[in-house]
């Protein structure tokens, strides 16, 4: 009787049974008090992917550098690859991102971990190049001198 009442009038009848009647005669697992809900489509890993550190940062051994699906970032010197394509450091040093073109002509990024000494020499070479360009105004003075020499001849 209680089940027929619930089937006819829905949740309101069930609430009345809770207040006034014997609820224990009805099994609560049969009563759809909440509606049907969808389920997740699978365990996707798209929320926390991407590089975790910028170029020049100090890293330690086994520190996760890039989380990715597939090989968007390629492993370079001092980099290990996990089963889910996660890149991690194999030794301590500084993080370097290098832009290359692969054999198909696509632009790719290679991640390296280099030692502190190599990083400092790389920075010194970069600064020296900037100073040399500043002295010649980025090669403008050299081109003007060449034009003057060609006009004098």
UniProtKB/TrEMBL annotation:
Highest taxon of source: Eukaryota
One Gene Ontology MF term: structural constituent of ribosome
Gene3D superfamilies: 2.40.50.100
InterPro entries linked to this entry: Ribosomal_bL27
GO cellular component, one term: mitochondrial large ribosomal subunit
SUPFAM superfamilies reported in the protein's UniProt record: Ribosomal L27 protein-like (SSF110324)
BP terms from Gene Ontology: translation
UniProt KW keywords: Ribonucleoprotein, Ribosomal protein
Similarity field: Belongs to the bacterial ribosomal protein bL27 family.
Protein name in UniProt: Ribosomal protein L27
């Amino acid at each position: 009787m209680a089940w027929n009442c619930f089937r006819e009038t829905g949740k309101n009848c069930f609430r009345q049974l809770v207040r006034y009647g014997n609820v224990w005669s009805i099994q609560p697992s049969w009563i759809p008090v909440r509606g049907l809900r969808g389920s997740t489509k699978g365990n996707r890993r798209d929320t926390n992917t991407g590089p975790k550190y910028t170029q020049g940062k100090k890293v330690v051994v086994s520190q996760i550098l890039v989380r990715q699906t597939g090989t968007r970032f390629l492993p370079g010197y001092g980099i290990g690859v996990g089963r889910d394509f996660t890149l991690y450091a194999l030794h301590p040093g500084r993080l370097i991102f290098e832009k290359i073109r692969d054999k198909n002509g696509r632009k790719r990024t290679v991640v390296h971990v280099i030692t502190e000494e190599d990083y400092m020499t790389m920075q010194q070479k970069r600064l020296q190049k900037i100073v040399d360009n500043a002295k010649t105004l980025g090669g403008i003075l050299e081109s003007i001198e060449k034009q003057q020499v060609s006009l004098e001849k």
